[in-house]
Amino acid sequence: MIAFIDDHRHAYGVEPICRVLPIAPSTYYAHAAQRVDPSKASARVRGDLVLCQHIRRVWEENFSVYGVRKVWRQLAREGITVARCTVARLMRQMGLQGVVRGKGVRTTISQQATPCPADRVNRQFRAPRPNALWVADFTYVATWAGFVYTAFVIDAYARRIVGWRVSRTAHASFVLDALEQALYERRPVQGGGLVHHSDRGGQGGFKRSLQHPEGGCDGHSKSAVGSVWTSAVTVTGSAAFGGTR
Known about the structure:
Strand content: 15-25%
CATH topology of the largest domain: Nucleotidyltransferase, domain 5
Largest sheet: 5 strands, mixed
Helix content: 40-55%
Structural class: alpha/beta
CATH superfamily of the largest domain: Ribonuclease H-like superfamily/Ribonuclease H
CATH architecture of the largest domain: 2-Layer Sandwich
Distance between the termini: 30 Å
Number of domains: 2
Radius of gyration: 25 Å
Number of helices: 9
Strand order of the largest sheet: 3-2-1-4-5
Shape: flat
């Protein structure tokens, strides 16, 4: 908002812009004064500026490979007391991140040529009642023994996982087993309008589930690649299996 006012103040003036935007002119002028004289900034802002210098120094001294945890521990060894979440916030603002070991795991492989149902949800992940909309996807979780794949089905109304399975390999059956568990636990009524929604990933589990509508699932829906996981986290209110995608 401050940047927008900076870009347009010469054309429209500060006060007219502030009358349209939900900001007081005094707030803008206070920010402008702080940029000219950093000593007028709040104690938190001044402290963040000092911490940013220490964080960048530690990050650069360690070949730009340290992540939040290692930077935070190095600061503690140097006697600089700061919360880990503060280090994470400042590193994110500065665009600093550590090196991630290992190769990324790709769980969604789009097959545009494969026929699929239309998107009957259109990113409206709200349901008027239980067993009206299930969203499904699968992701991977890093463990000490290696990566494991987790498939899950979430009821958009109840905001809870109604079916899930874990496997060492991303084969088709474990994805379908998650749907089978949800059908067994919830036992939706045939003809009740239940929609099973997933993304356009090319894994065999979701393609097979399109051919498996019995047991009370009245229709299937697909959206763009990768969209279901983000929306499912929003629906449930928490990343049930960790935000690994």
